[in-house]
Amino acid sequence: MRFLLLYLLYAVALSVGLAIAGLRTRRSAAPAASAAPGAARKSRQRVLVFGATGATGREVVRQGLERGHRVTAFVRNPAKLTQSHPDLTVITGNVHDRSAVLAAMKEQDAVISVLGHHAYYALGQPQTRATQNILRAVESERVGRFVCQTSLGIGDSAGRLGLLYTLFVIPTVLALYFWDKTGQERAIARSRVDWVIVRPAALINAPARGRWKAGDVGSFLVMARVSRADVASFLLDQLESDRYLRSTPGVCW
Predict the structure, then answer these.
(1) What are phi and psi of 100, to 5 degrees?
(2) What is the mean pLDDT of the chain?
(3) Structure confidence by residue, pLDDT tens digits, 150-203
(4) With 0-12 CB in 10 A as exposed, 13-18 as middle and 19+ as buried, what is 221?
(5) CB neighbours (10 Å) of residue 216?
(6) What is the pLDDT of residues 195-229, one digit of tens each?
(7) Beta partners for 214?
(8) Backbone angles phi, psi at 214, to 5 degrees
């Protein structure tokens, strides 16, 4: 019983810490129902994607190309990106290499970062350091928009992944991973770029619904979910809209 009490105190303290360490931005109180855009969109953009070989990153690349954008995928292992398209350029590099990131940033209009990893207990905040490299290059090249995926459960969305995540998954598996994401958000907020931080609910591999809720979303009780395909669509929407500029909208079904 004592161990359980101590564990619950730890889980609650961690959630409070993630709330304090992450960003708190003003968003509309009512969630906004959104739909993936069709023909109405701006002209094609040159979009650099970090994390392009991940499950969400591949969706960003695919949908970005479908929307008519010229996409550059920055990857460590090009063999993991099986897509091919006349408007797709693949650059091999390490996101922790400042010179490689800066070189890839040349002549880009926008950047989308969906960086992640499976080394959940890694120290040193690798996502934060990678994001800082990207931000330096974005500022240096004066790229127009930086869109970064983090997660519900931090900042003013702390606890909104539901009790399962708040009391078990994050404290036991994702504590360092989520703490790293708060560092990402702080680094972005300190930058001089036009940014949008997107906080998806628990990501699942499911067909896109084409509709989602965005803004102050999620639940303190029930696990919030959303497909990677719908998140990719929402990320790409942020290249064409200023609605969530310099804010941290959550996204879930």
Answers:
(1) -65, -40
(2) 92
(3) 999 999 999 999 999 999 999 999 999 999 999 999 999 999 999 999 999 999
(4) exposed
(5) 17
(6) 999 999 999 999 999 999 999 999 999 999 999 99
(7) 32, 251
(8) -135, 150
Q: What is the pLDDT of residue 167?
A: 96
Q: Which amino acid is at 212?
A: W
Q: Provide the CB-side half-sphere exposure for 54 (13 A, CA).
A: 21
3-state secondary structure of 79: helix
pTM, rounded to two decimals: 0.92
Please report where in the chains the tokens 């959104």 appear, as a residue.
Answer: 34
C-beta of residue 159 within 8 angstroms of C-beta of residue 220? yes
User: What is the C-alpha separation between 163 and 218, in angstroms, rounded?
Assistant: 11
Residue type, 71: V
Structure tokens belonging to residue 58: 């591949």
Task: Give CA 139 to chain center in angstroms.
Answer: 19
**Helices within the chain (DSSP H only):** 2-21, 55-66, 98-105, 126-141, 163-164, 175-190, 228-237
Question: What does the block give as tokens for 90?
Answer: 């693949």
Architecture of 43-252 per CATH? 3-Layer(aba) Sandwich (3.40)
